[in-house]
């Protein structure tokens, strides 16, 4: 991780190392509540983003924009230490396996939500039971595939009984988007709670409280004096999060000093320009973000499963990732030839071996002809213009051009704003569509299980018993070499026989900060959680 003075480079080495170690309504809080001693921890900070919020409710969102806010206001049993990706207790005093299939956490004393309600083991049980009961198609409940049941034998003890033993990832799952602890006296057990109701009820317990809230416009955060978790002391007097619909305005405001930090997302051209702008620093962190295309197995072109697979293979043969990397993103994203990004243990490159590094129209033609698919194939391809950065328009117009240059595809390209997009993609509205991914934790499994296990969050009707069994095997395999071999095999089989998604690009985290702002390099770490608590100004 570094302050950049030249072209962005992926910090894959850092990623590999860390992976191995594992509208508005007021809240009623006052600024005097912001620290334990009633004094300011430091100046307040303004953060700008184009990354919109789906919902504050942890059961209803599984996207970076929502988790960005949830990270600040909810506590977790386990979380990551600031500045890295080392797991440590947050609301818990300790967590460990007490048998092969039981993971037990003991809570700290005296925990409360901001509204004064006690945060107990029953709150934790309620939070995880609720995720499974709601199982929202846009939520993170798929991360709990190995969870059988949760028990709260006393006020401080939580017992997670797992379906399979020796789960190598469960501790990290507790620190992921499925892990926020919610107030059982406020949240319904089987339905999502409205954002304004969450704010009004002060039903959070993280390092910050929400002082005022105007969804996807402006959110004010004030430090929570009662927070005692892993994020430690808050280094500022509060944070204002300002949302932008246009990245050009985000760039102008960071240049002028109207905001202190700009994060997710500026165009590659803007980043290149800002590197030579006085008064600002472009900061990059470990890579881990990926971009990919999802195919809906029910609605995509093709009359039979064999024809549908042929269409997906022809798509893979026709993509020029290097062109997307250089022409659209100026090297700030690099070609991705697998489901697991380069730099993580277990990453392989099956797409490079099977489909090549340059478009191959002859191979695409042959695979379609063998399956009896008439050409050109009419493909409805959907993308989102506001959630995955302002260059998505260029990216997907380039993909359309690449596909149509083969003569094998006619692409109907359409875009939808994120709030609608998030709902429609899980309602079979899109035969093929754009998604991106920031990992919940830096382990290869987090690029596999959420996408390819049964009941996966994509909702694209892909399910394969062999793949699910292999995923269960790698998650519970304590032998590192054996586990990594299984992970590599999964990638190969997926690329050769299924292609429910086609990976395109891999990128790193980037933020732009004004001179005098500190801590950005610490929050852009391999935990992939943008934390306000480490930021300071002055």
UniProtKB/TrEMBL annotation:
Cellular localisation: Cell envelope
Domain annotation Solute-binding protein family: ranges: 87-456
GO molecular function: peptide transmembrane transporter activity
GO BP term, pick one: peptide transport
Top-rank taxon: Bacteria
Keywords: Signal, Transport
GO cellular component, one term: ATP-binding cassette (ABC) transporter complex
Annotated signal sequence range: 1-24
Matches recorded under PROSITE patterns: PROKAR_LIPOPROTEIN
Similarity field: Belongs to the bacterial solute-binding protein 5 family.
The name this protein goes by in its record: Peptide/nickel transport system substrate-binding protein
Record organism: Sanguibacter antarcticus
Lineage, highest ranks first: Bacteria, Bacillati, Actinomycetota, Actinomycetes, Micrococcales
